[in-house]
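In this section we walk through a basic example: taking a raw amino acid sequence and producing a predicted 3D structure, encoded as discrete structure tokens. The instruction is simple. Fold the sequence below.
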Amino acid sequence: MAMDRNKMAMRRFVEFINTASEQLAAELIAPEAIFHVPGRQEPLRGPDGYLEIIGMMRGGFPDIQWTLEEIIAEDDKIAARFTMRGTHHGPFLGVEPTGKSITVQAVNFYRLADGKFVEERGQPDLLSLLQQIGAVAG
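The resulting token sequence is shown next.
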């Protein structure tokens, strides 16, 4: 039963990241949650921290959408594989907009407590993303 609840929570979480809904953020993310972001020394925290992550991605790719490809749930943990798709219409990691489309894989690991997300470790394929927008040679 807990695994089914966690999978349902993950599907709602995908709705949250695709809409950047502050209401869903408050419903799904614990105030003390921590989010480990590649390239950042300190994790971001709580619903506002995750909205900041989404804002950074939407700043570079305003039309970005995440498609959940696979979920593995066990106890209080979830592993999720995503495909991110978007168009580079804003600055991203110092790279000026190119208008190029991206399709990038990501594998993220989550921990839940009392039905809310309390931790994420995200592993997007940043090398592929940077190659697709021409920031590094492929």
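Looking at the output, two observations stand out. The chain has a mean pLDDT of 94. The chain has four helices and six strands. In the next section we compare this with other chains.
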